[in-house]
């Protein structure tokens, strides 16, 4: 077999070489060379050559019969482009391995034949799909394959393929965890069992009457279509219920697999339905195309990732978005309430800046410093969360999902785009006031604490570190903006963790397990168990999110030092505190230029924190809600225009006639989600 066909002649020379006589070979090389040759020629020339040289057409037809005769093609229908493993990671590994080292298939199958004839199945498929229908139909008639769909052997393969898929799908659909996802079907007959019985009955009819032909009025066909639709409804309900019950990666994979196999049964069934003579060649041609399409996508990693991660990202963003609307302020009262919450967070951050500086003076390895810094961050972040305060840049990963959910749940019209732009302005000003609350408190608190320590101990602890603090707050000479962007990535990851933990909490019913746990109830009482359950349900996802954010921020500098890389994290609130320490460490002997540079860098770091975390979260949320790129462009255009007309409203809570519309967007979205739950 030739991998490169640069030496392949034109189609006439290939036909004269192999088919000027009745060739008894079963080698695939003649077919491979012919396929490569016809792509270099005008298709009408090929048709004319066969018409004018009937002996070549007859010899080629005989050759095709020999190489295809007796070769089953059910594997191409039941295996190709269908998930084969029981989980995402094994499936991904298998597809990557198959791309690098294709598996060895049984030689007596159409699967093997296609693999060894077409090394570029996608391009070959595109070539045949781009041919005019009448010319392709004419070629099929010349080669005697225009009606092969009526062959009893072909029909038996199609029916057998449907039964294989039905047996597999029934086994998966009857798994306990899958049935739990669709409790609505508990009081109904299982549609998968009904589908299997109907397909087995159809197979018996074809065994008794090999010439039997299905049509659209056939009772078998109608009944099978009903059961197929019921099976697809089961899968859709199960996916819909995932917002209520949560879902595991394994069940997500099983449901995807069930949907693929049921859809494939419907595609095969439609090939068997012949209502008129025109359908014969149409269905014959469609079977060939279907096999090529399935084969060309069988090891597609992108399709696997898209299908497997879309629902999971939807679930993560759904559970994250439950609290997102609380971070979008509407009235002046809410606006200043956000400021107070952020100010509380700023107080804690100011203290954390002092503690981190003190930890840096403790002798020890990079590992010990990584542990201390992580402990410092985790302790402070969890305190901020449990005390109801706000860390400004933690909010975008929450609010982005709410914004995307609004877009997907509300009908997108020009008016709604303006309403959404106003909603964005409310989000932006909420983040702005949260920034100000954090910064305006972390700076003075750090200054007050370092001054108090100086008075109590008689030592200015910030002197040694002051140069470093001020140098790092120069966005021109330092990598502070890039490090702020890295922190934005960590903030995004912490949002994913929050959603993932929330999904698992719901799926595994952890709060209910805690409330009903005999050990807890017998030891501490039912009241304690109920309170602990409620605390877990409300706070555990947030605690884990802040915990991992703290760990990531705490270990980055030490890992970078170990690897010889200048990487660290920069957060607007902490850098405001560090600016205070830098100024105090210099004995306030700092020129105005340095102070202005430090203030500018602090806010640029904040912008990097916000833009990266919010941007990545929006991309994930857009993907999970299947919002198109065209819609995104329209949305961005309306936001820019709205900002040009009303820039002040992006920073301060000025009343607008669009306030009520924005409230309705949030309210309708929350209501639709509640209906699911």
List keywords for this structure.
disordered C terminus, 29 helices, Site-sp_rcmbase, mainly alpha, 677 residues, Site-specific recombinase, 75% helix, 2 domains, disordered N terminus, Glycerol uptake facilitator protein, transmembrane helix
Describe the structure.
This protein has 29 helices and no strands. It has 2 domains: 230 residues, no CATH class; 356 residues, Glycerol uptake facilitator protein. The two termini are 58 Å apart. Helices cover 75% and strands 0% of the residues. The chain has 677 residues and is mainly alpha-helical. Pfam families: SpecificRecomb. This is Site-specific recombinase. It is a multi-pass membrane protein.
In CATH, the homologous superfamily of the largest domain goes by the name Glycerol uptake facilitator protein
Percent strand equals under 5%
Profile the largest sheet.
Answer: none
What is the fold named in CATH at topology level of the largest domain? Glycerol uptake facilitator protein
